[in-house]
Amino acid sequence: MTAIDTGLQELKRQHPEWEPWLAVVEEVLRETGDPQWDALVPTRTEAQRIKVPLLAETTIQIEEAVISGLLKQLLQTACRNGTSKMATLEPVARADVDSLMLFKASLCRDDDRVKDIATALGADPEALQAVVALVPLPFLHACNRRWTRSIDISWMEGYCPLCGAWPALGEIRGIERNRYFRCGRCGGEWRAHCLFCTYCGMTDHEQLVTLVPEQTGAGRMIEACKRCLGYVKTFTTLQGSVPAKVILDDLASVDLDVAAVEQGYKRPQGAGYALDLTIIGNGTK
Ligand SMILES: [Zn+2]
Ligand SMILES: [Zn+2]
After folding, report:
1. What are 5-44's pLDDT values in tens digits?
2. What distance in Å separates the CA atoms of residue 233 and residue 198, rounded to the nearest whole number?
3. What are the phi and psi torsion angles at 139 (to 5°)?
4. Which ligand has the shortest distance to the CA of 271?
5. Which residue among 27, 31, 201, 205 has the highest number of C-beta atoms inside a 10 angstrom radius?
6. Is 4 helix (H, G, I), strand (E, B) or coil?
7. Where on the phi/psi map is residue 212: left (φ > 0), alpha (ψ -120 to 50), or beta?
8. How many angstroms separate the CA atoms of 111 and 174, rounded?
9. What is the CA(257)–ligand 2 centre distance, in A?
10. What is the pTM of this model?
């Protein structure tokens, strides 16, 4: 049994009410391992530029049918198994939506664009946002497989050096206690620096706090900034999770999100870096 299967089973056991949503997550995680996505990774030849994620300003050529197929599949699973909110996605699953536009909106975290489409089709905006956020995962995981050695090892930014997202969580690994951030989209990792806030760069230690909620268990904490009110969940672990498990680790620690929000902290919305992508669709739907 893989780490993904174990992670999913554990989540279903702890949160049986999440089962409809976990069915959608499971489907996209299976897809992330499919080698067909590797052929879609843009070609890169130059070294990484300072502060610029590898995916930024690239041109992605993609079969529209591949994206529309995945989008439909995820929407149908969400409608079939889902809550009443997820059932509102039915008209989107049936409509002839511009799947490449949604793919780009999701990659660039253009949340307003997704919301507008949901409203126009009478779907719940949050539910559509949640499903659409998963659509680029198989593509991004393929980019991570291909580009992981191209990431600048001296990367100092708070956002993902591959896809520009803010970290989903942090890992403090092994006896050396090396710190890494993990990306919930591409599954990538980069070295974390605990001397400043990952979001606003605050260096005043009086303003950087560590919260350990009661009953949270050993090695789990929230690192937060009093200036920008951003936070990162951080876990002590022997070794880092495999890329596809990061999204499950994030879901499994929702108690820490609840505790952080109760204390007035929040995860930043939108992208850490504006990617400025060009997407060219090949073929028919
Ligand atoms: Zn990433
Ligand atoms: Zn901050």
Report:
1. 999 999 999 999 999 999 999 999 999 999 999 999 999 8
2. 12
3. -65, -45
4. 1
5. 31
6. helix
7. beta
8. 37
9. 17
10. 0.95
